[in-house]
Design goal:
7 helices, about 30% helix, about 20% strand, binds 2-amino-2-deoxy-6-O-phosphono-alpha-D-glucopyranose
Length: about 240
């Protein structure tokens, strides 16, 4: 585990964008795993700027971590909408190389199996960018007595519903379920970059760095990963 403590959010974003850019430059057909949330927004903005200055994403394949169940792709709070508007529509990644778990389906078992099959067929994830929930969730792998290896549907915890409610008009509108990549694909990623900023992530980062490894704090499982880079601002680093 390597930890970079940056001065502020902007520096964290610059560092993260640089790592993604170096990866794509070194391997043009890189398979990226991508997170949503407020944390990586700056990184996406900087990657779009890099693309405008010539960075090529035409061979990149992307797999997003998660999506809310029940939101159509055009819903402003869906992760499809977020990824398209903040990143994908501004770069030259081919649409067929974009993978985001579907939030609407008749048969979610089939959707989950298909998602894992696609990740495997792509050769697994080269570089996975993660954020972390205040309760230690990654993707939507919520604290639990057991975690799933594969892509699965999960009920969101009250804490996550409350925290993510800030993006919705009311708490009632927050979906209660989500589909998420499982811990198997996450831990099999060849390199993981975990981003966190702000004091409200300090405890989760402490658990990541030195907490007991437990499924009750999913991010703590990252301690088992051989190639983990943590990039945090001073606030998120304040308890380590
Ligand atoms: C969300 C997402 C995660 C994200 C996390 C942190 O619920 N499912 O993928 O990393 O919560 O979000 P934020 O970056 O807004 O703090």
């Amino acid at each position: 585990m390597i930890i970079h403590v940056m001065d502020d959010y902007e520096q964290m974003s610059i560092k993260a964008a640089g790592i993604v850019a170096d990866q794509v430059t070194a391997k043009s057909d890189t398979v990226l795993g991508l997170a949503t949330g407020s944390t990586p927004e700056g990184m996406y903005r900087l990657l779009v700027e890099k693309h405008r200055r010539g960075m090529d994403f035409s061979r990149v394949v992307a797999f997003n971590l998660d999506e809310y169940i029940g939101l159509p792709p055009e819903h402003p709070q869906s992760y499809h909408y977020y990824m398209y508007h903040k990143f994908f529509k501004h770069i030259n990644i081919p649409p067929q190389n974009i993978n985001i778990p579907r939030g609407l389906a008749d048969n979610f078992d089939r959707v989950c199996q298909e998602y894992d099959r696609r990740i495997n067929e792509a050769g697994g994830i080269d570089l996975l960018v993660l954020g972390v929930g205040r309760n230690g969730h990654i993707g939507f792998n919520e604290p639990n007595s057991r975690l799933n290896i594969g892509t699965h549907v999960i009920g969101l915890t009250e804490n996550t519903i409350k925290v993510n409610g800030r993006f919705f008009r009311s708490l009632e509108e927050v979906p209660r379920r989500a589909i998420t990549m499982g811990m198997g694909s996450i831990l099999k990623a060849r390199k993981i970059v975990l981003l966190a900023n702000g004091l409200n992530k300090a405890l989760a980062i402490k658990e990541t760095v030195s907490g007991k490894i437990t499924t009750e704090v999913p991010v703590s499982l990252l301690q088992l990963h051989p190639n983990l880079l943590i990039i945090v601002d001073k606030g998120a680093a304040s308890l380590i």
